[in-house]
């Protein structure tokens, strides 16, 4: 069986960008056949309107909210889970699935109901130079130097697994002159050298707003350029590291399209940190103005007691609302659900589309 794996991370008015490129038109056709909202939900819990538990902390309250049933996941097990873990360790590769304590690791690594195993490889080591208050990835001012063999090892792993779609991410490396952009770009080139047809998505840092670094990544041959704004503008100083700025992130996303106009761009927002509907709406408009094509929205979940507490558990119905708003705002694709993460099910979607096309070709 072919093993699809997803390898991925964690001023002024910008002009509105119209989608007229062939790449955008092609993606729109693909996304029309993509997953529905129900695919992002715990299948055992659909009557969320009947839930009587407390979903929001009021101002001044300090207790942690109890996890609602639609966010409960199973303990990771299974042969695919074990095989991926062993392969990654042998090649000294890190995954954001483990480092960021992603709640979907069991489903993604184990294959889920579709038998599509996915994983998320994190480049440039497992130690970040920033300390965002929502993220459990370990931090240091001077992390170990990047492994020079990592681009080749990553490409080797992907070639061996026989993938159709891969997402690469990385920690922030403010200690490196280029933020690690060349290392990132070399990994993409190594992958494309081995498998030219492979779709590659890169979920990248902001590189301190260095547009030369953005150009290096955008021009590396990747198919999707992703960078997360993470939260609304008003909460950014309290949620993200002080070096991560809301407008700086928007500039990075806009610049990627400037360097490669046909490039598909993507961003993600966490909900449940205390944002208002008006602030979320403005963030969506800001992303569209920056030319962002694809959007994901998911529930923030406190990784450890040392991190920000959840202010609100957003209901699946509200996530459905934001999915509809995203579509009406003109995003090519909006994935919105409690357990949705930056690249959740991306591999499954594109792989399913490719397999359908192959089947249609055989039957024609």
Give short descriptive properties of this protein:
8-stranded mixed beta sheet; 364 residues; globular; disordered N terminus; alpha/beta; 8 strands; single chain
Q: What series of H and E elements makes up the topology?
A: HHEHHEHEHEHEHHEHEHEH
Counted by DSSP, the helix tally is 12
Report strand %: 5-15%
Mean pLDDT: 76
Radius of gyration: 19 Å
Main sheet, how many strands, which sense, barrel?
8 strands, mixed
Taking the alpha carbons of the first and last residues, their distance comes to 24 Å
Strand order of the largest sheet: 1-2-3-4-5-6-7-8
**Overall 3D shape:** globular
The structure class reads alpha/beta
Low-confidence residue ranges? 1-20, 34-45, 95-100, 104-117
Helix content: 25-40%
The count of β-strands is 8
How would you describe the overall organization of this protein?
The chain has 364 residues and is of the alpha/beta class. Helices cover 35% and strands 10% of the residues. It contains twelve helices and eight strands. An eight-stranded mixed β-sheet has the order 1-2-3-4-5-6-7-8, with helices on both faces.
In a few lines, what is going on in this structure?
The chain has 12 helices and 8 strands. The chain has 364 residues and is α/β, with parallel strands linked by helices.
Helix-strand layout with pairing:
Elements: H1 22-31, H2 79-90, E1 94-95, H3 96-99, H4 105-110, E2 121-123, H5 150-161, E3 165-170, H6 181-194, E4 199-203, H7 211-218, E5 224-226, H8 236-239, H9 246-259, E6 264-271, H10 277-289, E7 294-299, H11 316-329, E8 333-336, H12 346-363
Parallel strand pairs: 2-3, 3-4, 4-5, 5-6, 6-7, 7-8
Antiparallel strand pairs: 1-2
Helix pairs in contact: 5-6, 6-7, 7-9
């Amino acid at each position: 069986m072919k093993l699809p794996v997803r390898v991925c991370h964690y001023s002024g008015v910008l002009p509105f960008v119209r989608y007229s490129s062939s790449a955008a038109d092609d993606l729109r056709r693909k996304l029309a056949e993509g997953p529905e909202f129900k695919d992002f939900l715990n299948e055992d819990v659909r009557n969320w309107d009947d839930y009587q538990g407390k979903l929001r902390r009021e101002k001044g309250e300090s207790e942690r909210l109890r996890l609602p049933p639609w966010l409960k996941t199973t303990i990771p097990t299974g042969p695919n889970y074990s095989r991926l873990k062993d392969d990654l360790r042998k090649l000294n590769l890190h995954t954001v699935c483990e480092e960021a304590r992603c709640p979907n690791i069991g489903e993604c690594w184990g294959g889920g109901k579709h038998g599509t195993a996915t994983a998320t490889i994190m480049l440039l080591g497992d130690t970040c130079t920033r300390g965002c208050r929502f993220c459990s990835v370990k931090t240091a001012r001077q992390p170990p130097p990047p492994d020079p063999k990592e681009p080749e090892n990553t490409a080797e792993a992907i070639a061996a697994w026989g993938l159709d779609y891969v997402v690469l991410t990385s920690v922030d490396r403010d200690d490196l002159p280029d933020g690690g952009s060349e290392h990132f770009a070399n990994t993409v080139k190594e992958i494309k050298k081995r498998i030219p047809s492979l779709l590659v998505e890169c979920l990248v840092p902001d590189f301190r707003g260095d547009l030369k670094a953005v150009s290096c990544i955008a021009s590396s041959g990747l198919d999707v350029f992703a960078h997360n704004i993470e939260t609304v503008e008003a909460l950014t100083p309290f949620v993200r590291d002080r070096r991560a700025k809301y407008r700086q992130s928007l500039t990075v996303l806009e610049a990627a399209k400037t360097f490669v106009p046909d490039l598909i761009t993507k961003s993600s927002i966490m909900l449940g940190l205390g944002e208002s509907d008006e602030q979320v709406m403005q963030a969506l408009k800001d992303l569209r103005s920056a030319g962002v094509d694809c959007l994901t929205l998911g529930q923030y979940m406190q990784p450890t007691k040392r991190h920000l507490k959840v202010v609100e558990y957003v209901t699946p119905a509200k996530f459905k609302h934001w999915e509809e708003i995203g579509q009406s705002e003109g995003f090519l694709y909006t994935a919105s659900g409690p357990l949705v993460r930056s690249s959740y099910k991306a591999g499954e979607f594109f792989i399913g589309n490719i397999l359908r096309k192959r089947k249609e070709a055989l039957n024609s």
